[in-house]
Design goal:
By secondary structure, the chain is α+β, with helices and mostly antiparallel strands. It folds into 5 domains: 59 residues, no CATH class; 120 residues, no CATH class; 40 residues, no CATH class; 167 residues, no CATH class; 203 residues, no CATH class. It is 39% helix and 10% strand. The chain is built from 28 helices and 20 strands. Strands 4-3-5-9-8-7-12-15 form an 8-stranded mixed sheet, sandwiched between helices. It is elongated and about 120 Å long.
Length: 798
Amino acid sequence: MDKAWMHIGDRMYSNDYASGVKQFMDMAKAHASGRDCIRCPCKRCRNRTFHPFSVVEDHLFKVGIDPSYTEWIFHGEEETLPDTTSSDEDGDAAYNDNDYIDDVDEMLDDIRVGSFMDNSVKLLHIKTVGGWTVKSFDMVIKLLQAAFPHALFPDSYNEARRLQRGLGFTYTKIHVCPNDCALFWKDNADKDACPKCNASRWASSTTNQKRLSQKVLRYFPLKPRLQRLFISRKTAQAMRWHVEERVDEPNFMRHPADSRVWKDFDNKYEAFSQDPRNVRLALASDGFNPLNNMSKLYSIWPVLLVPYNLPPWSCMKDLYLMMSLLIPGPKAPGNDIDVFLRPLIDELRELWEDGIQTYDAYKGEMFLLRAALLWTINDFPAYANLSGWSTKGKMTCPTCNFETDALWLKHGRKHAYMGHRRWLGIEHNWRKKKNAFNGKDERRLQPKTIAGQALMDQLHEVSNIQYGKSTKKRKRIPNELNWTKKCIFFELPYWLDLGLRHNLDVMHIEKNICDNVLGTLMNIEGKSKDTVNARRDLEDLGLRKELHLQHHGNHTYMSLACYMLNGTEQRSFCARMAEVKFPDGFASNIARCVNVNEGKIMGMKSHDCHIFMQYLLPVIIGGYLRPDIRGALIELYSFFKELCSRTLDTKVKSHDCHIFMQYLLSVIIGGYLRPDIRGALIELCSFFKELCSRTLDTRVLERLQANIPVILCKLEMIFPSAFFDIMVHLAIHLLDEALLAGPVQYRWMYHFERYLDKFKRYVRNRARPEGSIAEAYVHVECLTFCSMYLNDIETRHN
């Protein structure tokens, strides 16, 4: 169509201009599909305002058409995509000339759906933020329609919700065998019965007209969600941060991009690393009960993905966490989780091998987007499901593998994991100190990491595993390795080459160690590791005679151990804990976990233990240390005392154990324990504090790597064997993982467990919790994306 008329100056008296306006309006009316309002392309409105046809025509004659509007994409003309062969310089020039402003209209331009209006986006956003009900939303719509009859509003909440589907925010339902044997997907999509166990796909109570599946997996495709990261210029630029803005300092790690795993991966796969827009992902999964009723067992397992390209202040935010799978309950998938991971693994392979064409709004060009999965993040039970290495039995430690040192406690009926002298120097005098440990010299070296071909040889024995709850489980023979399967992640071409595939969760390890320490110090029933059976095991092993059971006639009693507080000390301990106050937002109110009269502490959560271990314990015992250390610690304690003028009552209960371990324990126990016990616990707390630093110095980590076996050996000389469950032992491997993968804040479960707590609030239909969560998730995901373009109302971005 001839557009020369757009540049005619004499608009009111030019026949060519009038003819051009008529052709434009005819095309716009045909494109309007029955609507009585269209975008006005005049110089004043610039396609940002909707007006009736007559008003638009008046504006074109009185104000004139915007001369830069050369492609009439809002009025029926097809848009010409950018030339993919243009150089970076051309893209930058176009960016500067266009004077780009992120707003809703530009968002609609980016995603090429000009038929949707910003009114719907803003109303839905306000409803979500303000907690409106559907009924109240519909009432406001009616009011707005009556007050502004010429404005375009959705007729109802349901019509407004169609926006998210128009923008591509959807998910796929995949039917699953009720026994978790297989997915009714791809080759099995048309089958009515499971190809392995022959179980029916359909619920028996339904009719042929409307059949319902017994089990449904909800899959949220990854490709469009990764593409969406590059639609906005702001996020597209942020996705290049790890290359263009990150400061690479020797010996310091502040981001996963600083880690050895990341750098080794880049060196091995140079073609992948050449484009900084290629995405590095982490996968996290855990189960939760959506019904908030612990008496009714129900476990849903979301699978979440994290893009690590973003800077530290954005990387782990909820805005960028992407749900990939919603594995249905009521039972946990267990070892059969690989069946549910199949769609995601297939898509990850496609993203690695083929990539996907994506538009980069920052550069103004198309590029081939690829993605790689760096590692998984999970607690220890989920570690077994995702890795295929069972976390039960005598070879529980996945790092030590077949060299795990496990001691069976006959009376305690469990394994103790000790033998940490193997990590000491070969000439260390503790290696010959028999009576203080297990009665034997220690001449073994620390276990070697199993990798490469040796790992594949081990996995070859479990390569043909049948999935499904109807399948008879294979029983392991004595001394057989703990592999239960070759996990599905090995189908990714690069998975074997990764330096760290599955992370040990620092959060849960720290909490369990705190529970062991606090439970034993306070002699908490059910939590203490110093029990009658533990004393009997020591007697059978011939160790620690001072802790053996005392017999007087027909009576047997336990003497008070040096690491245990008596009744008066327990009440004093609790009184001091109840008085501790924290800065606003720093920790939850730990005083609610304390019963001063009974001398009991119960109900501490993960972050309380974190703070207790890492901060407070080293402060209170200052009176027993050197004057210079004592002075510094007293000043620090005084600072916190003056700063913390009030307590915090927060809903984030997972912080409890974190707080307790890093702040409280060291403060309170100082006056009660022997110097050697006190020193060992302080060193343990300092270890966790330095490990959890935001910036890791590799020189400090190497020092800690040499210190942690000494700390654990000191604890072996203090506490009974029952104290050393697998979680205490795993602490010795945390430094190796930190040296490989960088700061723990990107690899622990705090972020994900808090995020899963939101899913519980999404459940409105308790009979269909998975459907409620899926629908609410895509709704919030859509509004979160759209809110990046809203500048005139309050959002999470502004």
